[in-house]
Amino acid sequence: MAVDDQQKSEKHLRLYLASRPRKQGRLEEHYGSEQSPEKQYSQLHELLRARATPADAAAASTDLTVLIDYLEDEVADKQLKERAEQWAAGMKTGSIPEGIQYSYNYEGQAAMDHYVSQIVAALRDFPFLQLDGGRQQGHWVRDVLVAPLFDGYWDFYSNRKVSGFNLQEFYLLLAGPGMLLERLKHARKMLQA
What are 119-160's pLDDT values in tens digits? Predict the structure, then answer.
């Protein structure tokens, strides 16, 4: 067995010694050895190593405060609490006030679905994996705290309707007790500790 390995090594060495040098490329001819493939390859790896420094990772990290502020602004700007209360009262009496659910030329359930899709897209686009706690914490926040809230109503990862939300359900998902905003605030405390 050792003889076979030695023969293979010798064969490889002979092949290496007998090989012809490669032809220089135009850039290498014009600018010199700095443009050789070997030099370019080594410079690329130096750049990649330099980019992966802890200082850059810290600068690229983000905080959940951005997402929390966005969601709180959405709840306040869209007056979701008031609309959800009006919607619930309308469901009890059998007459939902007109214009309670509207969004960009949509009305009723279509407007609700469109709005949920926008919020889910914003949540999915948030850089969870760049949170201050690192990738593992980002996975925890996204996959354990956020995504399961949508189960049965909306497929969080593909941003597709399953059964959908009504206005009251979606408001409670965002701002209800123990729901999305409270979970994100709890996660922020955990990550800052």
Answer: 999 999 999 999 888 889 999 999 999 999 999 999 999 999
Q: Per-residue pLDDT tens for 178-187? A: 999 999 999 9
Nearest-10 crossing angle of helices 167-175, 64-77:
140
Long-range pairs for 57-61 at CB < 8 Å and ≥24 separation? 60/130, 61/130, 61/131, 61/132
- Determine how many CB atoms are found less than 10 A away from the CB of residue 109: 14
Q: Are 99 and 129 in contact (CB under 8 A)?
A: no
Which phi-psi region, left, alpha or beta, contains residue 94 (left: φ > 0; alpha: ψ -120 to 50)?
Answer: left
pTM of the full structure? 0.67
Do the bridges between strand 154-155 and strand 102-103 make them parallel or antiparallel, or are there none, so unpaired?
Answer: unpaired
CA distance 104 to 111: 8
Distance CA 4, CA 21 (A): 28
Closest to 65 (Cα-Cα) out of 193, 165, 178, 184: 184
